[in-house]
Amino acid sequence: MTPWDVRVSPVARQSLLALPDTAFGRVSDTIELLRSSPLLGRECRPSYEAARLPFPCRVIYVGYYGLYYTADKEAQELYLRFIEDQRMGPKRRFTGRLR
Prior knowledge:
Layout: E1 5-8, H1 10-18, H2 21-36, E2 42-43, E3 58-62, E4 65-72, E5 77-85
Parallel strand pairs: 1-5
Antiparallel strand pairs: 2-3, 3-4, 4-5
């Protein structure tokens, strides 16, 4: 399988660069893994309405962090939308950052 292209939203890029060093490497490795196995993450279906995104996406967890992304099979492109610290209250995720 040809590795998929990965695009990173400005919000996800900012979160990635703010990660502690111990998490940065693991998250980067997971993003690389998703290039060859983009459907590895599960469909995101949170029980809290405030934590739901207005578009279908997938999520994969790396330690405390959830990587929220969409996968376009036709274009073979993965779009990393958010990296969220799962210790944050679910009703406060994505606040003010949805576009």
